[in-house]
Structures are given as C-alpha cells and as structure tokens.
Amino acid sequence: MFLCCQPPPSPSLQRALELLAQGHAAEAGATVTSAAKQAKKRFGSGSHSLACAYADMARLHFLEGDFKRAATEFRHAADAPLPPEAGQRADRLAFMFGFAACLEALAKTGEAEKVLRQCVEFARNLHGSATPGYANALAPLAEFLLRTGHPEEAVRWMDEAFAILRRLQDPSIAVAAALRAELFKAVDRIDDPFADLDDLPDDVVVDSVAQAIGRSGRGEPDRVRLVLADLLRFVERRFGDAHPALTDTLAAIVRHEAALGDRGNLLNRTSAARRAVWSYTKPRVNRGLLESIEIGFEVDGTIHLVPRLAREPDADEAVGLEMVLTQAVEDLYARPRPE
User: N or C: which end of the chain has fewer CB within 10 A?
Assistant: First the structure.
C-alpha cells in the first residue's frame, strides 16, 4: 500500500521519517506528536495547522503499517472546519485521499470507494472540471477501481483525465498515460495507449516512459508485458535506437520477465537483453569487428554473452571488446527500477 496525492513533508515529519529510517520508531512518533501538541497550543483546536499535524502523524503511522491509527488521524484532519484558502483546501483533499488509503488497507473497500468519489467531487469544486487538479484526482479512483475489478469504469475516468491534461499540455499527464495504458489492456482495447503522446514535449514523454516502467513493479504481469511491448514500439518510433528511454524500456522488459521466473517469457527477456547490449556495444568497438551477440541466462539469472566476430581481433581490440561487453551488462542492470 502507498499514499498518493500528499503534500511535501513538513520539517517535523521529515525528521520523523529520518528517525524511522534509522530504526528509531519511538523517537519518530514522539517528534510528530510533539509537533501536534505545539500546533494545538499555538493555533487551537480546529485550526488548519493542527489538521496538518494530525496528517503528519497519520502519514508516519501509515508507513509503519498501523493503518487503524493512521485512519483515525487522517479522519481528524479531514473533519476539521473547512479552511478558507485554496491551498489549505488542497491539503484537505490530501487528507481525504490518505483516509481512503487507510480504509482500503483495512479491507473497508466500500467505505474507501465512497471517500474516493467524494475526493473527485471535492477536487471538481475546488479546482474546476477542466483543470489538472481535477484530472489528477481521478487517478486514485481509477487505480482503486482497477484493483477491485471494475476496469471499465476506471478507463472512462482516465480517458477523461488524459483528455484534460493533453489539452492543457500539463506535465502530470505522464502519470495518467501510464495508468491508462494498463487499463487499456484490462478492458482489451487494441488502440495504442501512447499514440496521443506524440505531440508532447520530449521531457514529458520521457517522464511518461518512466511512469509506465514504474508501474511494471506492481501491475498484473500479463498486462504489464503488453504495456511494455506497446511502450517499446512507441519509444522506437519517437526517439530511435540511441535514446536512453529505449534502453530503460528494454531493461524493464528483462527485469519483468526475470521476476516472473517460470512464468516469464524467455524469448522476450533474451531479445530485449540482446538488443540493449548490442545497442551499447556496437558504437563502442572498432568498425567491422562485431557481427552479432548471442545471449543466454542461467537459472540463477546469470547472463552469458557470446560475441560473433566478423574478423579476428588484435590483442587490444579483444581486451577492449571484453571491457565494453562488461560495461554493457552493468549499464543494462543499472537502469531505473520500478517503484
């Protein structure tokens, strides 16, 4: 489980998270509790500052797996009087999303869905129906509907979100594009989920690729395989062979198939690895030396490379080729990993 749509951590929450990462859970809890007491003393019950402090406590407890306690704290934060400022109301929306995540973690799916739909209405009223703020509020509901077996409604929400964000050329379309691609597979849509990204700036497209790769760590495996295949075709068309986004996608295919073990597609894995290694190696060795590269995998995942040479290398070329092949494998496995 993870929390979406949360604001950057406050100084007290940031310190608490550092303490938690160091294994000091009690000190982390004391840090956010002390901040809440100070907020109540300074600003009073019902203040927005106290609501934010409750949400900090909730975020910490959520990360610790104490979903029941986190739900109570998020609900306290969301039940405070509605603040007048738009930014503070955006915080309220984040508290509601946090409460919904806790409810789902507690297997209260009906209540979680109700809160997520309230979040959509709140976002529409807060931001307007043709804005990034509203469009981005649709993704958590669509994610939930996908997880709970209602992809048909989920894809309708994401088509709406994608259309808004594409019209506005908003960078947050990257997240929507990745989720929408998976939803296409869930409802057996055959149109290319990435085709409508063609007229967007390169940086937005690269982020969309990264977001799609990131989903491969948590999506349904067969759907992910199909999405990655679509993604590879799109990246080839948009950037060509030399772009890092292509190697990132190939590496994602290799990792995805490897993670599935016996259920993985060895042909996909081998083909993606061969192409990535070849793309890295060919421009780095002397012209006319390398004809092709064969790849194999041991059961434990060890990769074997067999270069097919067009001619006999001299001593320096042989050493250089070995070094480049080693670097190619290291580059492949160093590529960004799913979240």
Answer: N
DSSP 205-244: HHHHHHHHHHHTTTS-HHHHHHHHHHHHHHHHHHH-TTSH
Domain that holds residue 82: 1-112
| Helices (H), ranges, 23-150 | 25-43, 48-63, 67-79, 86-105, 109-127, 132-147
Backbone angles phi, psi at 291, to 5 degrees: -95, -45
Q: What is the pLDDT of residue 241?
A: 83
The residues with which 304 forms a beta bridge, in sequence order, are 296
pTM of the model: 0.88
For the chain, 339 residues long, the average pLDDT of each consecutive 10-residue run is 86 96 96 96 93 96 96 94 89 96 97 98 96 96 96 97 96 96 96 93 95 88 95 94 91 94 93 93 90 89 90 91 93 79
Q: What total of structural domains would you count in the chain? A: 1
How far apart are alpha carbons 207 and 199 in whole angstroms?
Answer: 14
Q: In the predicted model, what is the mean pLDDT of the chain?
A: 93
How far apart, in whole angstroms, are the C-alpha atoms of residue 219 and residue 39? 40
With respect to residue 1, please indicate whether it lies within any of the assigned structural domains.
yes
Q: Is residue 324 part of a domain?
A: no
Rama region for 305: left / alpha / beta (φ>0; ψ in -120 to 50; rest): beta
| pLDDT computed for residue 191 by the predictor | 92
Residue 129 domain-assigned (yes or no): no
Q: In the beta sheet, which residues pair with residue 297? A: 303
Residue 165 lies in a domain: no
